[in-house]
């Protein structure tokens, strides 16, 4: 591919905010004037809501979901089913030729089962959670070269055909690296990183590793934002030249964005 694409990751919560979703797809349409775009989506809130309706309470450890066999089924229903289709439908309403798929499709994202982690003295088995083994980007390149907008659900597959839940931020980073993306955008409902989430003036225009470590130490970085920033630094390490955390209506202007820097 002659033009390096832009990889955009969005959270499932965006689907519950119609105005934000509308602004997001308008921004994607504008981005496509600069480069092809791949969209990777999460779906944690919807998967959790569905689990609770089924009488199951999922476990989240440091922003990452422990995935039992039931959790994996729920994630397939929620992410590859309802959410992926709804995002494609919304994109089509904005004239974008979106194609929905899972990262497992075409063997794009090959994973291996995550070994247990020790977290705060506890051994945590994450179950059917996959760590990236390799990316085969041929299917995505084919779609991009055909003018399509791939919309990717974060479900990977191992060499034995077992499906796995994979953190959506991690999937987006792996795809960005494999596609040699020109930019990696992590979209959140609240925009960039704030020292105080209740104070818009506390936005960080830039976040380097020292600031990240200070935020972890002082407690104002944690949970999902911790995961996003860890993945953002990985993207920089893997050669992605631009990494931003921003709001769905700020994809181009980036007035309320945090640029992640070494």
Automatic annotation (TrEMBL):
InterPro entries: AceGlu_kinase-like_sf, AcgluKinase_fam, ArgB, Asp/Glu/Uridylate_kinase. The keyword Kinase applies. GO terms for cellular component: cytoplasm. Gene3D superfamilies: Acetylglutamate kinase-like. Keywords: Amino-acid biosynthesis, Arginine biosynthesis, ATP-binding, Cytoplasm, Kinase, Nucleotide-binding, Transferase. Pathway: Amino-acid biosynthesis; L-arginine biosynthesis; N(2)-acetyl-L-ornithine from L-glutamate: step 2/4. It is found in: Cytoplasm. This is Acetylglutamate kinase. It comes from Rhodothermus marinus (strain ATCC 43812 / DSM 4252 / R-10). The lineage of its organism: Bacteria, Pseudomonadati, Rhodothermota, Rhodothermia, Rhodothermales.
């Amino acid at each position: 591919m002659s033009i390096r694409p832009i990889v955009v990751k969005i959270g499932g919560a965006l689907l519950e905010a119609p105005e934000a979703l509308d602004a997001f797809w308008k921004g994607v349409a504008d981005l496509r004037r600069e480069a092809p775009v791949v969209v990777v989506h999460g779906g944690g809130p919807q998967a959790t809501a569905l689990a609770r309706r089924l009488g199951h309470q999922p476990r989240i450890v440091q922003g990452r979901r422990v995935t039992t066999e039931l959790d994996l089924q729920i994630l397939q229903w929620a992410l590859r089913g309802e959410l992926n289709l709804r995002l494609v439908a919304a994109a089509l309403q904005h004239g974008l030729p979106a194609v929905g798929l899972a990262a497992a499709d075409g063997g794009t994202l090959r994973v291996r089962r995550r070994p247990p982690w020790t977290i705060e003295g506890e051994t945590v088995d994450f179950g059917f959670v996959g760590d990236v083994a390799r990316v085969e980007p041929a299917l995505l390149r084919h779609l991009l070269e055909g003018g399509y907008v791939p919309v990717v659900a974060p479900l990977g597959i191992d060499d034995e055909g077992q499906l796995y839940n994979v953190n959506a931020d991690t999937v987006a980073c792996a795809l960005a690296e494999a596609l040699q993306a020109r930019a990696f955008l992590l979209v959140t409902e609240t925009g960039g990183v704030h020292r105080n989430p209740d104070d818009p003036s506390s936005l960080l225009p830039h976040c380097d590793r020292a600031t990240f470590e200070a935020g972890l130490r002082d407690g104002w970085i944690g949970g999902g934002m911790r995961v996003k920033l860890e993945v953002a630094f990985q993207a920089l390490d893997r050669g992605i030249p631009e990494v931003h955390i921003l709001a769905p209506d700020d994809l181009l202007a980036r007035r309320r964005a945090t640029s992640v820097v070494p």
